[in-house]
Amino acid sequence: MKTGDTRNPGDPDPRTLVERTIRVDQAGEFGAVRIYEGQLAALRLTGRAGGEAGRKIAHMAAAEREHNRTFDRLLAERRVRPTVLSPLWHVAGFALGAATALMGEKAAMACTVAVEETIDEHYAQQAAALGDDEAELRATIEKFRAEEIEHRDTALAAGAEQAPAYGALTAAVRAGSRLAIWLSTRF
User: Fold this and answer.
1) d(C-alpha 53, C-alpha 119), whole Å
2) Which of 12, 53, 129, 148 has the smallest number of CB atoms closer than 10 Å to its CB?
3) 3-state SS of the chain?
4) 0.85 exceeded by pTM
5) 104: closest CA among 170, 32, 159?
């Protein structure tokens, strides 16, 4: 199967699909880096950066930086225009991370759960849409998807579900993540 073989009328052509995939994934990984930077800054501010949650967040942040570097490279190699919304994601990601960490370590982990569950679904859809002609890109997405699931599991094991207003918090973060995906794919 080739990328685009199963497209419906109105779906993007294969080149546009690949460009959108790389654009939105670069934006998403950039946003994830900024969320973790905001969380770490808030934990430092409150004197909790050296704790277990801080160490876990720092470890997850390192993986997100690697993901972001990969998609930065793909943007350049494939000559894909980045999203024009990067300045917004720069601020919004940091603010989301800082706000959730200021709510407490479990709220920071709840944010991770919500973001990573959304990315898991998003990456699964992308991998399914890419054909054998994009096997390398698909493999990258599947590898990163597995790492995002690992981050979600780490956050759940750290007590994310015990965060105050867990259901409302994760629903809001999921909705925001889905909106960011939709916007970054197109703009």
Assistant:
1) 21
2) 12
3) CCCCCCCCCCCCCHHHHHHHHHHHHHHHHHHHHHHHHHHHHHHHHCCCCCCHHHHHHHHHHHHHHHHHHHHHHHHHHHCCCCCCCHHHHHHHHHHHHHHHHHHCHHHHHHHHHHHHHHHHHHHHHHHHHCCHHHHHHHHHHHHHHHHHHHHHHHHHHCCHHHCCCHHHHHHHHHHHHHHHHHHHHHC
4) yes
5) 159
